[in-house]
């Protein structure tokens, strides 16, 4: 039953490794019952990542995403007897034109869901490397706290515009900061913004991703950190699991640690996108959400395997 709502392949993402089929085959080998494909949407040239500038044009990124959808549909047809496959995408939120790009993507294909994420603040990447993080911090006024506030304000804009069914790595902003593991201590304005965003997610029934990639990248806790999870839990918020894998060696990585973390949060029920569940969102007519108790989750044979 363990599942991931967030994954990328080197076939369709320049900073990942492996083909989409290899990623899927690895998920089957490791005992996943549900695997979600969420490649990045196309972006304009001013928002290319460094590894894309020599290999792509805006037009080729659009074609690459179209190729992803074709390949995802092919793989689902082949492997559906072995594993549930969900086809989605991961959003960006960079500048006003981003909204139209997302709408264009949604108009091309009937997705099962999508992951609502932001990776930029002041149009500058905040999780790519330390140098670009510092550029974003300078643009925000020179402090982590000011940048955090701006990040969560931009996240709120994304949430209002898109109402994503699953919200990705809610507090990604802490990854490269000087305050990566202090749980936003003594940052009143940041906490007010996070609480506001969580209330909005809960209001429309959005699901918060518990993302194990934070552990892989050296954080003490997954995304989001423990106080955020507990705040959302008090609101009746729902949670889902993800590994945010960018290669076959990252499929299911740190899932045992993620399960331990779930126990610490007090979460008693985990949710997952399910193609057999009735849809409650007209945008995604072919999938809804199901749930499993954490007690039952812990008893699944998946955990007897090695997931380091």
UniProtKB/TrEMBL annotation:
GO terms for biological process: L-histidine biosynthetic process. Keywords: Amino-acid biosynthesis, Histidine biosynthesis, Hydrolase. It holds the Pfam family PHP. It is an enzyme of class 3 (hydrolase). Its EC number is 3.1.3.15. GO terms for molecular function: histidinol-phosphatase activity. InterPro entries: Histidinol_P_phosphatase_HisJ (IPR010140), PHP_dom (IPR004013), Pol/histidinol_Pase-like (IPR016195). SUPFAM superfamilies: PHP domain-like (SSF89550). Signal peptide: none annotated. One of its GO terms (cellular component) is cytoplasm. Residues 5-212 form the PHP domain. Pathway: Amino-acid biosynthesis; L-histidine biosynthesis; L-histidine from 5-phospho-alpha-D-ribose 1-diphosphate: step 8/9. It comes from the Eukaryota. NCBIfam families: hisJ_fam (TIGR01856). Belongs to the PHP hydrolase family. HisK subfamily. This is Histidinol-phosphatase.
